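--- STAGE predict ---
source: upstream dedup step, 1 unique chain passed
mode: sequence only
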Amino acid sequence: MRPHLPATGSLTALLLCAGAAPAWSQAPTTAQLTAITDKVFAPWNSTHSPGCAVGIARSGTTLLERGYGMADLAGGRPITPGTILESGSVAKQFTATAVMLLVADGKLRLEDDARSYLPELPTYGRPITVRHLLTHTSGLREWSNLVAWQGWPRGTRVHTQGDAFRIITSQRALNYPVGDHYSYTNSGYLLARTLVERVSGQDFETFTAQRIFAPLGLTHTSWRGNFTRIVPGLAQAYRRTRGEWQLDMPNDHVIAAGGLWTTVGDWLAWNEHLTKRTLGGAVVDSLSRRMRLTNGIDIGYALGLMVGEYRGTPQIAHSGSTAGYSTYLARYPQLGNLSIAVLCNSAGAPATNYTHAIVDALHPELARPAARDTVAADLASLLPWRGLYEDTRWHSVAIMDTVSGTMRLDGAPVRPLRDGTYLIGSQVMRLAMDADGRTRTLRTVTSDGDSVVHRWRQAERWRPGLAELQSLAGRYTSDEIGVTFVVAVQNGTLTVSSRPGVVDTLTPTARDAFDGSDNAVWFTRGRNGTGREMHFGASRVWHFTAGRVP
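--- STAGE serialize ---
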């Protein structure tokens, strides 16, 4: 989820305000800070698990750096403040900075057509600008979904920058018209890497080392351009599977969207350089200037940074997750220029929550979110809304139905609010009936004012017979990813295979629609009733089509 943001306007002035006085009568001592982080990271304070490194600074002064858990379970090496971990997507702000340095050099502009530097990109109607690449508003499909549909998800083979570049630039369609929506995708940042190399005439790792890391004294920071390189002090990454810790390392050569090796100390120093605008006001200010969609909505994303609020105070931050690494880096200009860096080596470790728990402990005076004004549920009024709904973006199907006397949407309780909307988890939803009295829609509004519409498809889950499934079986091909999918019926269920040994079992939802392992799959039929096209949809690839082979 993205943080709650004002609907319009810029936070630039707000972010330049002087820091407010902390709630503590005096600065917390090292012992007090240690007690706070010991409590937050207690689940990782063990010699038998991975863990996290944490760093806290205020106004450029480091207050605490501490490690919890193990950097290497086999070698018995603990995590310390000097342990190197991988950044995940927090790396994006460094890639955006590389682009902005070239802008400052007068070698490109953010509003330039990206095809000026990347002519391999197809034309998609509106030009994709350099700014679109860095703000997740280009509409480009996510490369990792595409290679997964080839049968090679990340981690199953060594992907290179060339692999990623070719599959991104082979796509003939976008998720949406350029600039119309925000949809997080790593593809834009991988293209930005190539752009930096072509414009600067240097290898990306060399350019960033010479223009960013070395001048700023980030001596423990480098890229995972060669994952086989031996890096002293690097923490292994882990994932818990069936009760046991297993290695989960990002073994590929794809960087710029992620893949930065660093320490909490270097991250705190980086945040201070951003605060002091060491690299130049124009460079740093651009990093925190939020993007505006074509409909005029300002989204929370800037250039590799999320610019928003936490409990009513400005927050400039980004999270990261790659393989078994989970991270968060944040700064709070109005809290005495507070910076917090969290780097963990366990998949799914809630680094964002840990950061916010530290903020809560240091600043209990911050406003708590108001409780939602829920009212008693009238189940009878919700019964007409039961059925299957398909979202109009990536075509996933959700089921609204009663469970034990409670209306639920995909298992989550539907709770009425006093203003006539409904709460599902933390998401507010509106129910709407069109003038025809039959077309029902669910509309959820994102924190930045954009909306997602879910349209009613049918009353009950589709339960196809064997003949109906057989009519969809066949071979479907896509030259955009160079794969011919084999769709078959096995043991009474429909399966799809992209290559030998890789089989995904499809679960029927609405008619001719299915849930795959990590995406929606649906078919359109020809005049003879057999499958003509197979379609895929996911949050980062909204619509992808493979045509049936005669």
